[in-house]
Amino acid sequence: MTRTMTKLFLALLVFASMLLGVSTFSNAVADDSNGLDFDPSADLSVTWIPEQYPVVGAKADDADGMRKYTEKIVGSDLAFDMVPIPGGKFKMGSPEDEDGRNDDEGPQVEVEVEPFWMMSTEVTWDLYDFWSQKIDIERRAHLKLETTKWDKIGDACARPTAPYSDMTFDMGHDGYPAICMTQYAAKTFCKWLTAKTGRYHRLPMEAEWEYACRAGSDTAYFFGDDVDDLDDYGWYFDSEDSPDGYSKVGEKKPNPWGLYDIHGNVAEWCLDQLIPDYYEELKDGKVAAPFAVPTKLFPRVVRGGSWDDDAEMLRSAVRLGSDANWKMQDPQIPQSIWYHTDALTVGFRVIRPLRVPSAEEALLYEPDPAIMAEYREAQGGKE
């Protein structure tokens, strides 16, 4: 079975489930406020970040003090590595003579990026489901564990309802990348992660993602221009050892800054609106910072290419965008704010900026509370 046929078959399963009335794409419901005098779902994270959960190596006063550390989720055995990405300047986009180049990859423009930590792998189902399926709350109750200050805030963060079926589509769960979430869902996960760690997390800007991917390189891929070497670093359509779907994270070689699967496996959400001629605006000085603030739902930027893409679509400069067709199998009115039923190739990884943003900046990074309010209203107030 070809990969295109596999995706079509899985999409038909989605549609069949929904026709049978097994739809649970309803609004997320946070637990009660737990006595908090703020709403973690509606209020900006920077206004309520708790103290940092103790983790060795996680604190840094400046870029020189940044180290790789292993983030831990309170009340669980879940852990993942965060690697330091030094701030600096780089040429965003690709040169005109790069093989496979698309028009929206130019003109190249020099941009500057502040230092941050980035998750070394894509977010896995293990971690994503701990949030999305309220496993943290259920586990704590089952084991009669103490509710910490981090748990208390995390419990009050919004979460999706349980999905209608297995969202892995039999491609694998433990250690595999989470898929099919909207950008809104990924942003909301970041708020929960902020609550559970006491460290501010968000999605990367498009410029931050490309800068981290390149790791100081100026070639088509971080390892050079020879596509024959790609099998050592990424999963894509014609990978010699690629399964018919995504693969476990971290099985290929990382880039020089310690990022695994930055080329391929699943494409990764960024914060930006996809604007084809945005680099021209940057070049002409029409915008001050390399962040295209979204003004409409589609298209939003995803980067890195996926297991279902040709090798040239995994290049460091390639820009892809979300599409309304990613919800094609979702017949609900309104359609889900949490799931892209047809985005079997899309996941995400998180970053933690060294400099915690101001409230004005965070307003542009975090999920818009109006989306939840409008969704509830359109559903007639249903939970």
CATH fold type: paralog of FGE (formylglycine-generating enzyme)
Question: Structural class of the secondary structure composition?
Answer: alpha+beta
Number of strands: 10
Uncertain segments are 15-29
Overall 3D form = globular
Q: Name the beta content range.
A: 5-15%
Strand order of the largest sheet: 1-2-5-10
Whole-number tally of structural domains: 1
Backbone CA Rg: 20 Å
Q: Provide a count of the helices.
A: 9
How far do the termini sit from each other? 40 Å
CATH class: Alpha Beta
Main sheet characteristics: 4 strands, antiparallel
User: How are helices and strands ordered from N to C?
Assistant: HEEEEEHHHHHEHEEEEHH
How does CATH name the architecture?
Alpha-Beta Complex
Q: Let me know the CATH homologous superfamily.
A: paralog of FGE (formylglycine-generating enzyme)
Helix content: 10-25%
Average pLDDT, rounded to a whole number, is: 91
Please tell me about this protein's structure.
The protein has 383 residues and is α+β, with helices and mostly antiparallel strands. The protein has one domain (3-378): paralog of FGE (formylglycine-generating enzyme) (Alpha-Beta Complex), CATH 3.90.1580. The chain has helices spanning 3-19, 125-132, 135-143, 149-155, 183-197, 206-214, 278-283, 359-365, 369-378, and strands at residues 69-72, 79-85, 88-92, 109-113, 116-119, 267-273, 300-303, 319-321, 346-347, 351-353. Strands 1-2-5-10 form a 4-stranded antiparallel beta sheet, with no helix packed on it. A 4-stranded mixed beta sheet has the order 8-7-6-9, with helices on one face. A two-stranded antiparallel ribbon has the order 3-4. The longest helix is centred in the N-terminal third of the chain and has 17 residues, at 3-19.
